[in-house]
Amino acid sequence: MNLKNQIVASERPYIIAGPCSAETPEQLSSIIADLSKLNVNLIRAGIWKPRTRPGSFEGLGEIALPWLVEASKLHQLPCSVEVANKDHVEKALKAGVDVLWIGARTTVNPFAVQEIADVLRGTKTPVMIKNPVNPDLNLWIGAFERLKAAGIDDLTAIHRGFSFYDHPKYRNAPNWEIPIALKERLPELPIICDPSHITGKRNLLLEISQKAMDLNMDGLMIETHPDPDQAWSDAEQQVTAEGLQVLLSKLVLRSRDIGAEIADQMQVMREKIGILDDRLFDILSARMHLSEEVGLFKKENNITILQPEHWAKSIQQRMHTSSDLKLSEGFIRQVMDAIHQESIRHQTNIMNRNEEND
Ligand code: PEP
Ligand code: MN
Q: What's the pLDDT score for residue 89?
């Protein structure tokens, strides 16, 4: 099968669903039978599970491959598994698995990705590559390049979020700017979002799925289980087939194609925004000019660039304006920090300038 073409040709969103882990033949046939009645395009199931810490369920291994392949065939659905090394690839392909995916903990390791690319050389296997656990766009792109160099062209990306120590809401931080940047760098590559691993909680799946659709992603990978609370891994984030159906019915799918009239109207709005952005940057530039004047004054009076008390007070005052301005405190903080850093850079240049050149 050609996964990439299927994703592009299929109605959006392309849906990949199935359990986090294959557990028993009954679990697989039950969930796959249920999913076959929905608009699911591809089955997923973990056979080898990379767990962060030992002691949790690490997957059944190859014994579960025929259960998965047979149940998928019976319901005329293709199936996919995660592979982390040469042995996994060989066993999965021999068992008749249609699509492979490289997990987040494997994408970080160029040796492992290269090993997988080498064993796939000469095949036409479709491969999906999850983002690495750390927010490193080049590492993700590097994995695509390794597979491409081995002649594997049927490639798809999966955005599953990035490790974050103690994120206030999600299991993994979405860092949407990274899949957006990936699309800019590799425009032909389909991108699937994996809300299950981003959120870690089933009640948050819809908001992330909706966001992925609004950002024009091509599909969703959602972990589904006949009895989610009893799942052997990732119990909190899995949903039943019915839960998946409800979620999909709530998704609002906005059009990707814009007609000429709408494009014209948007152009007018974008021009207005462009004019305001020009003004913003003119003001920022003037502001840095003033910073340089202050820097010169500090230099002449031999005082340090950073005056922490003054800075803390400025931030606090600015935060108070948050609700009047209808801007989030987080945004105000980010903008203030960025302005501050740039200001320090300008002042440092002034401080370090040679006296003769002054
Ligand atoms: C998975 O898909 O079950 C999995 C282990 O995901 P990730 O590589 O995103 O952690
Ligand atoms: Mn999982």
A: 98
Q: Using the mean position of ligand 1's atoms as its centre, give its distance from the Cα of residue 103 in Å.
A: 5
Cβ(16) – ligand 1 distance below 6 Å: no
pTM as predicted = 0.81
Candidate from 48, 130, 139 with most ligand 1 atoms within 8 A of CB, to mutate: 130
Closest-CA residue, ligand 1 atom 10, reads 104
Does CATH number 3.20.20.70 belong to domain 3-250?
yes
In the chain, domain spans:
3-250, 260-357
CATH of range 260-357; options 3.90.940.20, 3.40.50.620, 1.20.59.10, 3.40.50.150? 1.20.59.10
Give me the amino acid identity at 355. E
The number of the ligand nearest the C-alpha atom of 133 reads 1
State pLDDT tens for residues 126-162. Answer: 999 999 999 999 999 999 999 999 999 999 999 999 9
Torsion from C-alpha of 168, 172, 173, 175, nearest 10 degrees: -170
The length of the chain is 358
CA–CA distance, 3 with 60 (Å, rounded to integer): 26
Ligand 2: distance of its center to the CA of 76 in Å? 24
Q: Which helix (H) or strand (E) element contains residue 233?
A: none
Q: Does any ligand 1 atom lie closer than 6 A to the CB of residue 104?
A: yes
CA angle 227, 220, 24 (to 5 degrees): 30
